[in-house]
Structure prediction request, 159 residues.
Amino acid sequence: MQITIASVGKLKEKYWNDALAEFQKRLSAYTKLNFVTILEEKMPENPSDATREKILVKETERLIQIIPKNSYIILLDLQGKEISSPALAVKIQQLTVEGHSHLTFVIGGPFGYTDDLRKLADFRWSFSPLTFTHQMIKVMLVEQIYRAFKIMRNEKYHH
Prediction:
């Protein structure tokens, strides 16, 4: 299985990059993990609704372009379905059994994305009703993917 994390915005702080690198290393025993990223569009301080929408359309179009073709798309979306860590493990296992060899998890930018991306998604997942920074959610996502593989293999997570 191959997993891609497609997202908006680069991680700037070393500690977030270190955390991602650690989980990428841990996941290498289970799957190939790739990160593809686009830069955020510049949003004015107090944008009009029309300006905001124009920027979101542009960012969404660029985000859609980096999603690998023929992958199963899981969109992180506040309007999506909340699932537990064990349920994520079951979902990934089911997708594998169904023949999906490439999963792409998509994280939008700080201002979200348009409905075009929601329509493209195969599954919309809400991490929580809470709001997290995009840097934090990327690390939490990779940790949850790692946890799912540990659950699927009945391996201990904590040593």
In short: The radius of gyration is 16 Å. The CA atoms of residues 38 and 64 lie 10 Å apart.
